[in-house]
Design a protein that fits this description.
The protein is an alpha/beta fold. It has two domains: 125 residues, ph1033 like domains (ph1033 like fold, Roll), CATH 3.10.590.10; 170 residues, no CATH class. The chain is 33% helix and 22% strand. It contains 13 helices and eleven strands. The strands form two sheets. Strands 1, 2, 3, 4, 5 and 6 form a six-stranded mixed β-sheet that branches. It has a five-stranded mixed β-sheet with strand order 7-8-9-10-11, with helices on both faces. About 8% of the residues have low confidence.
């Protein structure tokens, strides 16, 4: 058994998908069943590790947008999680060229001091749930990746599109007209408010919720929340990425952090992506967490509801008419 590092470069989405789909992909055939893998991704200027696992049997499953580039894919087992730690700690045993020695091309780490340090850092930061990262903005055009970067390098996803901002604004408008307070993530707020003007001061500057810091950080990044007093009535994630994944992962993380939190959640996406959303919601990793709480709503349904002239006399219960459950989809 070898110890290796699988570097997802700057693709937070691919990093998250490895865990969500229980699969790891490599650009060479050296990694083998039973190898211990530390999964890392570059976030900002830091390379962070938040999960490790052992490789299982070879599989043909390649869920990533650039899956064709991975010639060797294996299932994963015995997955463990930790609060992400900076991989640069490996400079202690490896010196300034630690990345070349330990990371490049997922080579086996033969240095016992490096293996022991990785194990120690992982154990002291260990947690019982996955800590996903948010899908970030694209890498700046003048950014040059260091020459020590792994050959498993991949490209990040696109940011929110105009369509997704428009739907985000429609969801906020619907909730506002129904009388709910509205939460929009701070990074999106100015763009949404360019597309929608609230009837009253319904947009919240701070969440009126009493949860632990991890839960609050997850909640405040959800695309749209309808809030009544101190209660989240509805939560909406708009899936604009090719893989239909980041929002589902955020919802699952929230439910895992607060298993007794009774939030009705919705993944909102174009109609042509419905089957992909249902496929993701029905995966074993999400099914037991989201099956009874999370449904699909199409862009067109949101637009139809937003055009309803009697929204002021309706409640959130009307969403049942427009929502589709993964359980119902699978059984048909």
């Amino acid at each position: 058994m070898s110890t290796r590092i699988l570097h997802c470069s700057t693709s937070v989405e691919n990093y998250n998908m490895c865990i969500g789909h229980n699969v790891a992909g490599f650009s060479n055939r050296a990694p083998q069943q039973g190898d211990l893998i530390y999964l890392v991704v570059k976030v900002g200027k830091k390379t962070l590790c938040g999960a490790r696992f052992k490789l299982n049997e070879i599989t043909k499953h390649k869920p990533w947008p650039d899956g064709e580039r991975y010639v060797h894919t294996l299932g994963i087992k015995e997955v463990e999680f930790c609060q992400p730690f900076d991989l640069s700690v490996l400079s202690e045993p490896g010196g300034k060229h630690w990345s070349i020695k330990y990371v490049q091309a997922s080579k086996p780490i033969t240095d016992k001091a490096a293996c022991d340090l990785l194990d120690h850092k992982f154990r002291v930061n260990k947690v019982d749930h996955f800590v996903p990262f948010e899908v970030a903005s694209p890498v700046p055009v003048d950014f040059v990746e260091p020459t020590t970067t792994t050959t498993d390098e991949i490209i990040d996803e696109a940011p929110l599109t105009r369509d997704s901002i428009r739907i985000q604004a429609k969801l906020a408008e619907i909730g506002d007209r129904m009388g709910y307070s509205i939460w929009i993530p701070r990074n999106d707020r100015s763009r949404v408010l360019e597309a929608w003007q609230p009837i009253k001061k319904s947009v919240l500057n701070d969440l009126p919720l009493n949860y632990d810091l991890d839960t609050i950080k997850t909640i405040e990044n959800i695309d749209v929340l309808w809030i009544n007093g101190r209660t989240i009535v509805r939560a909406f994630e708009i899936e604009h990425t090719t893989s239909i994944y980041s929002g589902i992962l955020r919802m699952a993380d929230l439910m895992a952090l607060q298993p007794n939190l009774n939030i009705k959640a919705h993944i909102v996406a174009p109609s042509e992506r419905k089957s992909k959303v249902m496929q993701e919601l029905s995966r074993p990793v999400f099914r037991h967490i989201l099956a009874n709480t999370c449904t699909f709503i199409s862009y067109s349904s949101i637009e139809e509801l937003a055009s309803e002239k009697r929204l002021e006399y309706m409640t959130d219960a009307v969403l049942k008419v427009y929502s589709e459950s993964a359980k119902d989809y699978i059984s048909t």
